[in-house]
Design goal:
Blueprint (H helix, E strand, L loop, with lengths): L1 H5 L2 H12 L1 H6 L8 H14 L10 H14 L7 E5 L5 E5 L34 E3 L2 E3 L1 H13 L3
Length: about 150
Amino acid sequence: MLCSKLGGMRSIAALLALFAATAAYAQDSAPKELTPRQQAFRRIYQELVEINTTNSVGDTVRSAEAMAAELKNGGLPAADVQVISSSSRKGDMVARLRGTGARKPMLLIAHMDVVEAKREDWDFDPFKLQEIGGTSAAAAPSTTRQWLRSLSPT
């Protein structure tokens, strides 16, 4: 079970945060040998990057279902993970990580769609994770980095 591999329920919170901040991995140099945690993250990251979520032909339902499956496999109860769809290719995922009540609740929000990524505009398939010089490259990390930069104070 992913939960035990990643270190328990605290790791589920970390997994949620990782879904929202994939750009951090995309910008870091990959170590020569990945730890089991890093291997699990890379597998999930690659799966999500390689789902086309563009508005014209992409499928955010598929992306939402993939994230929901990982969270359930990681130990979140099925009742706390929902995929919501407004049409056959447009969807979102909502997950609840229950706390003890000792701290204020936290809300993490991220988008699953990416800007149009036409194959002819790229040197490689934008929906295949590429490792170039220790850095990950694909359409999704690029748009996530732009989103994270917009949140940073200037």
